[in-house]
Each structure stands twice: as C-alpha cells, then as structure tokens.
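Q: I'm teaching a short session on how sequence maps to structure, and I want students to see two examples side by side rather than one. Could you give me a first protein with its sequence written out and its structure tokens following it? Keep the formatting plain so it prints cleanly on a handout.
A: Of course. Example one:
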Amino acid sequence: MKFADKVAATFARMDGDDDVWVFFEEGLKPESLRRADLEYAEKKSEDDVIELDLERYLWDCERALEGDLLALFDVVGHCQELQTPLPYWAAERIQKMIANGVLGQPVEPKTKGRHGTSSKVLADELKGHLRHDAVSRVRVYQTLGPCLFSFMMLPVGLRRIYSGKPLPDFGHTVDEAIEAARQSLSGSFAQCSFETLRKAYRNEKNAASPSWAAASDDALIAIGVEVDQEQYLPEHQSHSFLPHIPNLPSQMGVEVHPTKLDERSLRIIEEAKGFSDFNDFVRAVQDRKVVL
C-alpha cells in the first residue's frame, strides 16, 4: 500500500460541515526512499506545490471576476508570490476602487436588500459560520473531556487564552459552551453578544463553509479573523508533542500530528478509529455508548 493510501486510511473526520481532519499516528510513518528516488521525490513535490499554487490563483481569479473583493486581495498576493504581472482587469478594478475612494464614493457597487454590497453578504455568512463552529468545537471539548487532543480542537481564541495554563473546564451545558465561544471570538472579526452567538449556533445553515472560508491567511487576517500560530499549548505535559497546524482559522480547520500523547488523548484516538465519521464518535460518547 502506498504511503498516501496509508495516510488516507487513518483519517477520522470530525464533521462533514467543518472540514476538520485528524491524522492518527500510523499515518505519520514515512516509507524510506532509495537514494536514487530522492531527487525525483523532491522534484515531484516542487511540481505539486507549483501546480497547487496555480490552481488557487486561477480559482481566485474566477471569484474576483465575479465581484469578490477578498478574492481580488488574494489575486494580488498570488501575483506577488508567483512573480507574474497583475491581470489587466484586476489592475483596472483596483484603479477604479482607488478613484472611488478619493472621490468619497463606494468602492463596491451597491446591491438591493439590507446588506448593501455583495461583500457584506459574504462577510455575514463567514461570521455566522465562525460563530457556529466556535460553539461546536467547545461542545466537542465538553464531550471528550479535558486532554491535549480535545484542547487542540478548541477555537484558536481559547487556545491563546489558555496557552501555558492548566486544561480549562468549560462545564457541560450549551450555555457554558456559548459563553466560552464568546470569549474566544472577543475582539475578532466574528465577535458578538451571547444571544447573537446562540442564534448563530441554532441556525444549521451556518454549519456550511462559505466561500470566504477558503481565502488566504493574509486576506483573513486583514479583515480581523484570528488564525492559528502553531504555538498555543496548555501547561507543560509529561510528554513530547509536536503540533502541525495549518494556518487556517481554527474555527474551520485544525490538524493534529502527534508524536506522543497523554493517556486520555490516546484512548480517544483508539476509540474513534472504530467510527468512519468522527462526529458519530462524539455522539456515541454523548450517549454514553462509548465511555472514555
């Protein structure tokens, strides 16, 4: 079996709506390559990265042509990274936005309805998703109990707050989860009141990942979304742990690459392997069909 297939076979998905993946230890044992294969493997990796960058660039261009300003932000970033000229249509759009800004006019055409612009619609969709996801992650933490595994699945705001501190206790109720999520989102793009967060969590539509969820780190940071910094861990544990977390808003995605975990975390992983969907495992723990 190829290494990629081995990794795929060890995936356990947390939630189909959240796009959260957890990698188990068995998928992290690389196969040794013969010396003659090393140069090919390195070249193949470089080609894959370049191809992926181009795919993202073209996809962002398509979104920007449809009027997505955050995608236009990423198109400029891609051109800088790939050292390619800015497309003429993107340059014209930026020039027009600057001219409108100087004249005090809207930089984006207004649309009908209460939102005003298409970007406002997309921003509200992203806020709803981040709010729903933050509460959902705290609920998972409440279900699994405090351990390093569940801590790494918390929204980044809470991991930052409790970095270097003992594992927190967020209780067991929905209201306690909402309050913890509210603290996590405080000062961020999606900050809101307790009641607004409650409504966002109850709205199932917010579980779907909106288009802005795929924006680059730079674009998300520019609008005030907090992204993972790969540095937030609880108080020193009696084991080694090397986190590998992609720079995505933690409310949408987090990967845990453990080398050594505490006993409770290992027990969670072992029990979860019996479920094809990690969310089914969480529900089984909630229903006490699985005792950790």
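Q: Perfect. Now a second example for contrast.
A: Example two:
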Amino acid sequence: MKTIKYYLHQLFKKDYSLENAPIKTKSIQDSFDYLEERMDQKERLFFVRFGDGEFMTLLKRDHRNYIYNEGLAIEIEGSFRIKDANYLISCPINYPYDEFHAKGIYKQFSWQNEMIEVMDTMDIKTHVLYENPCVFQCMAVFKPQRLRKFLNNHVRSKSKMFIGSTPKEVAEKLYGPIDYYVKIPVKNAYETIEEWWPEIERNADKVELIIPSAGSTSNAIALRLWNLNIQVKLIDFGSIVDAVDRKVSRTWIRLKGHTALKILNNPPEFTLKEKLNNFGKDVKFFFRNQII
C-alpha cells in the first residue's frame, strides 16, 4: 500500500527536472524487475553497487569500515567506467520518488551534488540509466515475499562462492549452500586483498554465482573477475545479510530488520517479548512513514 506522502508528491511535488537529467537512476521496482528478467540469460551478468562508501573513497576520505587506499580508489573508478550491457552499475544519484521512499531506509543522499561533482571530475557523467543500489534492502523490507522468490529461483539453487566476513552458516541461511567460502577481514579488507584474492581466482570459474560482501572492495572484486572474463553471475546484495545475522549495522535494519527476515525460507521464531517489540516498531514506522 502506497503512503499518503507518495500520493501528495505525485499530485503537488513531482520533479520533472529528472526527465532531462544527465544522470538517472531507475526506481526500486523497475531495477528489481529488470535484474530478475536478466538473471535468466545464459551469458555472464554482473550487478555492482555504488553508494556513499564508494564515493567517499573517490573523494579520498576514510569510511566506517576501511581507510582510504589509492589502489582501491583506482579499482572503484575502473569498475564505474565499464560500459557493457552485462555489467549493471547501480548509482545513488537522482532517485525517482517512488513508493519505497522512507526515512532511514531509502532516501536521496543530502550530499548528492558532491557525488555529481566527483563524476564530473572523472569525466564519466554520461546519459546512462543506472540501476538502483538500494533495491535489495527495499524489497526485503516492503516486499519480502517477492525477494524470497528471487532468491529461491536465482540464488539458493545455484553453485556459488561467497566472499565476506559474515560467518558461513549465517550466509547460508540467506543464500543457500556455499561451495566456496572466502573469508575476509571485517574492516580494511582491501589492505589484504592480495592475500585472499588467489583463492577467488582459483575457484571463480567453478561456480554459477559469486556474491561479494566486502563493502567497496566488492567493486574491486567485480572489476578483476570481469577483466578475467569469468563466465558467472555476480551480485552485490549489500547489507541484507547483516539483517539475517541480527547485526544492526544500518538504520534500515534497526527500523525494519525483523520484517526482512521473511525473505528466509525458515525465518526464526520470535519470543513474545520480541513480537511485542516488533509490533510497536511496525506501528510507529507505519504512521511516521505516511508523512516523512
């Protein structure tokens, strides 16, 4: 059900300036539908995400889970510059106002203009329609059954490699059996990439799907695998695995992480206290979300 603010925006605040903007991003639903459709193709397909962390690196600043590294910045920029129909790039700029907008879950970055300036400086501001980087967290919160179907059809039944710091047993709750598990540090993963990269390169062509869960370093992984011409699907799912791990690493998990657990085939049983707490969160979120 769409919110009151959504209808008000459509009636009184619709921003037509985006129609001619040089940088455009798809809505959540359009991006999800497109990815779902493309997952049936036989050719390789990469879905990479650019968010605040990647732009912080391009601005030569530290981020919460890693320090600035020139090598990482070079590989992030290299990933951003790939122009191929099978390399789907998501970009956090000029989101269309859709039914998923919700404070703390999905909203335009306040420093969007700074991101645009970075793209101008790099001379990669082209008339490209980018994918939406928030697609998985929004579907997990607002349409978990639809995302669960996607995971069952395109992820859980596939042979796969997982690259991340989340324990294997937790990642398998979300993604299904993991054939190759590559453990990386929780923070500053890029600083040690040459230590764990050989394991990826050695086994990448033995699976159907690769899931990098390494923050901004995920783009370095994607770039390297793309340049090696590895014929796999690769998807950066972002922080939804943290919700499964009950790790409150993002505001959206604190607000609606319990709802996102419905994407699991065997969601956990909540205690009575947890059910009451979650109900209170849902009521508060529902009314707040109608207006902000």
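Q: What should students look for in example two?
A: Point them to this: The first strand starts at residue 23 and ends at 25. Also worth mentioning: The chain has 13 helices and eight strands.
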